[in-house]
């Protein structure tokens, strides 16, 4: 399972729901619910990644250092093939509403808590998320879409479009031909 090119200590893959070939998961990754996480092939999950949700991680994926994916067992992260999520990004799959209907701490009994919205973040194939970007619940990063560093994404993106800013806004179209050609050569249509 472990990539021969990467030699640091590794996560215990047997804890995962499933795990493909050529996978590197750093030993100091924290996956709160590994039985809800399926990992494809040719995947690198670097040091300091923190994951609390269910997750489906495709092939040829890089989850960079100190990425945070939160939302609890009722939330889901779906990462399709050929996606990179850069260091320090935050994917908020579920969140308290913070509207004063109760406390916002997981340490408080449920009957005294604020409403929590659980959702799904989907990163479609060929997408990229830049360093320190924040993705909010129920957002789809569309095929080939790129989110720039430090952007805040609160709505779905359009395919093959680059987004930057707070809130994230489209700034240009991204070419797709070479990526589609390379994916086809690797056996992905």
From TrEMBL:
It comes from the Bacteria. This is Acyltransferase. One of its GO terms (molecular function) is acyltransferase activity. Belongs to the transferase hexapeptide repeat family. It comes from Hymenobacter edaphi. The keyword Acyltransferase applies. Keywords: Acyltransferase, Transferase. InterPro entries: Trans_hexapeptide_repeat (IPR050179), Trimer_LpxA-like_sf (IPR011004). The lineage of its organism: Bacteria, Pseudomonadati, Bacteroidota, Cytophagia, Cytophagales.
